[in-house]
Amino acid sequence: MKSYQRTWPVRVLCVDDNKDIADSEAMLLEVVGFEVEVCYDGRSALSIAETFHPRVCLLDLDMPGMDGDELAARLRTALKGEHPVMVALTARGDEQSVDRIKAAGFDLHLLKPVSPNQLVGALNRLTAPGR
Known about the structure:
This protein is of the alpha/beta class. Helix content is 42%, strand content 19%. The protein has helices spanning 19-31, 42-52, 68-78, 95-103, 116-126, and strands spanning 11-15, 35-39, 56-60, 85-90, 108-111. The chain has a five-stranded parallel sheet with strand order 2-1-3-4-5, sandwiched between helices. The longest helix is centred in the first third of the chain and has 13 residues, at 19-31. The radius of gyration is 14 Å and the shape is globular.
């Protein structure tokens, strides 16, 4: 893996109902210097986001109870003007899913399985100072 060690802190909220995926993403991001909180459902993500104030929300789209689309909208409302970067992470890349992601206002769409280099590189670009 390329060297992606961060020199500035960025908070990332990882939300995925698949605990292995969410925990793996968090471990990777922590190793390179992100501050990370992990949630496995939309309700707990909303609760944590209000005190954690993430700069990036990495959201699975297909979760039971509250999907990633609804969660993104509710996070934007709950975080009142903080404008976190919203990243959709899904195994779906078909045209309907791409349209869904655009309509929900996500800043980026990453396809599962996402490589470590791709994930870290994308988040570094999206959160670079001055951006």
